[in-house]
Each structure stands twice: as structure tokens, then as C-alpha cells.
Fold this sequence. Notes:
By secondary structure, the chain is α/β, with parallel strands linked by helices. The chain has helices at residues 7-10, 41-50, 63-73, 86-97, 113-120, 137-142, 166-175, 200-205, 234-242, 251-262, 264-288, 308-317, 337-351, and strands at 28-29, 80-83, 103-108, 124-129, 148-154, 181-185, 210-215, 228-231, 299-302, 320-321, 323-325, 329-333. A 7-stranded mixed β-sheet has the order 2-8-7-6-5-3-4, with helices on both faces. A 3-stranded antiparallel β-sheet has the order 9-12-11, covered by helices on one side. A two-stranded parallel sheet has the order 1-10. A hairpin with a 3-residue loop joins strand 11 and strand 12 (329-333). Helix 4 (86-97) runs parallel beside helix 5, helix 4 (86-97) packs across helix 9 and helix 11 packs parallel to helix 13 (337-351). The radius of gyration is 20 Å and the shape is globular. The N and C termini lie far apart (53 Å). Bound molecules: 4'-deoxy-4'-aminopyridoxal-5'-phosphate. 4'-deoxy-4'-aminopyridoxal-5'-phosphate binds next to helix 4.
Amino acid sequence: MPRFRSILDTMPAYKPGKAVISPEGRSFKLSSNESPYEPLPSVVESITRAAVEINRYPDPGSVKLTGALAERYGVPYDHVALGAGSVAVAQQLLETVGEPGAEVLYAWRSFEAYPLLVSLAGAVAVEVPLRDETHDLDAMADAVTPETRLIFVCNPNNPTGTVNRTAELGRFLDRVPENVLVVLDEAYREYVRDEDVPDGLTFYRDRPNVAVLRTFSKAYGLAGLRVGYLIGHAPVAAAVRKTMMPFAVNHLAQVAAVASLQAEAELLERVETVVKERTRVREALLSQGWTVPPTEANFVWMRLGERTMEFAELCAGSGVAVRPFAGEGARVSIGDPESNDTFLAAAEAFKN
Ligand code: PMP
């Protein structure tokens, strides 16, 4: 019997959002916060053209994409680091700090990959409970110890959709020692409409220990291609590049991401439509009598407690896949109007 690391005995496997099919053959996948839109024709065209080049390895340094991101955000080239999805960038980050005794701090509940990746990196996870479904930044700052190496702040938070605003984040960052890296995970940044929610880049600019994590998977609609990035000061970005698996970001992903930046205006129009649907869905849920925290992301959070799995099953009966966290609640992505209407009908049926 091969011997594995003991952490594998206790670490659960990552559970991806599933699709379900109703008895009538209908399927609405609202379980992974994906874009409901098909890729733009211009993006498909660029991938199609690049397909004939895949006998070659991808550009290991992703020079074009890195340059395009640096230009897009007005940051130096050496402040950008890539990975095969922002979850891979998070793993690369943890590889840069993970060693026995190193502590990694994050709010809980938050992005479900954090605890898995922290354990896998051999570090100690320190979870600080949410307060009112939101990061409790005071408690998080209180939880910093001399062993703390990295803090994730997920803003907006997955799965609650809640946010932390500029003043409180500034106060929090002032309290974090300069030798602790703070990673602002902004996977849902493009959906934020509250003007008091900071663009993490404004904090990164004058703080060498702050970095921003972003992705092409959500607003840019490239979840299937796997590309995410970090913007941080040169030593941080360099460390994250070192811990990337060689050639992790594949050729088609690089090409599609560059094409998506070129088509950004069109993509952000789609985001606007999702934001409008988000408002409609939340208001409909509120009028059905649900408690739904205000959300700045492309999903809503329903704290269902013990009824969570029952709710998910009822939704599945209508072909709607939601993301249940047993005993806690369900996260439901905002999809196209038909998916959202089907979900709202299921939610109403559950209420009755
Ligand atoms: N961060 C957060 C907060 C997320 O919700 C997700 C996706 N569920 C990710 C990172 C990772 O996304 P990806 O790897 O597709 O970039």
C-alpha cells in the first residue's frame, strides 16, 4: 500500500457545482457562478485560429497576456503573475508561504477552496467566523499572530455576496503587520456596483504587502479555459511565478484572455445585464419572504440551515442546480432570465 501524506486522510475533496436535469429534461446550472452567456464570436474566432498552433508548448511567461493586463490596469509588467484559474494562483501563493507552523487566515464561510489549499500547502488554517454574513475585519486583525503569513479577504465574499467597504478595509490593512501578505480575492469585482467598495488595486499601489487576485472565469466568461492572475508588488508576483507549474496557462487560454480584454466593453455590458437580474432576483426573493443579504456578486445567499439539502433537492426537481452547503445555506448564481425565473418559482414553491 503506497503511503500518502496524512493530511489526505482528513482533507475532503473539492466539491464542484453540479448540473442537474429535471424529469422533463430541463437543466439550469446556477451552482458555479459562471457567466450564462456563450463566448463572444471574436473570442471563439481567436481560439479557433490558435488551435492550429497547439502542437507547440504555450508561451511559458504568457508575455502577451501579462503585457495586456499590465497595460489594462496601469501597473508594471513585473507586478502581474498568472495561473490556471485564480484558484491555481491561490495555490501558488500558498506554496510561497506554506510550511509547518505557518498560519493562513481567512473568514469562514468563504471560498471553499481556501481550507483545502491551505492544508495541502502544509500550513495551518485559521478561520474567523463571519459576522452578519460579512468578514469581521476587527476579529481577523485580532487573530493575527507572529506565525501569520497570509490573509485572504474575499470581497465580495463567496458564498454570501457581502462586501467590506473602503474605510474599514483601510483600517484593517493598517493593523496588519507589513510582513503578512494580504490577498484581496476579487473574483467578482466586475459585478460590484456599491461605490464604497474599493477596487483592491487602490490599496495595492502603496502597500507592498497587499495583492489582488482576479479571474477571467466569471465576468469574462472563460471558466472552461482556466486563467486567473495576481497583481502585486514585484517580490510577490515573482514568488507566485516561481511556484507556477511550468506551462500551466495553456495557449488557448492565453489567446482567449487577450481577446477578452480587447472585447472588454462588450463583456462588461453583459455583466450589467447580470447585475440587473441580480437586483430582480433578490427583490423577488425578499417579496417571497426570504432573508437574502445584499449581494454585490453574481449570486445570492440563502441561509436555510437544516433545510438546505431539502431546498437543493426541490430546486433540482425543476432542473435548477444550486450550491448547497449542508446545515448552512445555499448559494444560487444569477443566470439568464429563464433560469432565474425557474429558480424563483422553485423558491416560492418551497416557501409554500
Ligand atoms: N476566488 C473566489 C472567491 C471564487 O469564488 C472562485 C471560483 N469559485 C475562485 C477564486 C476561483 O476561480 P477560477 O479558478 O475559476 O479563477
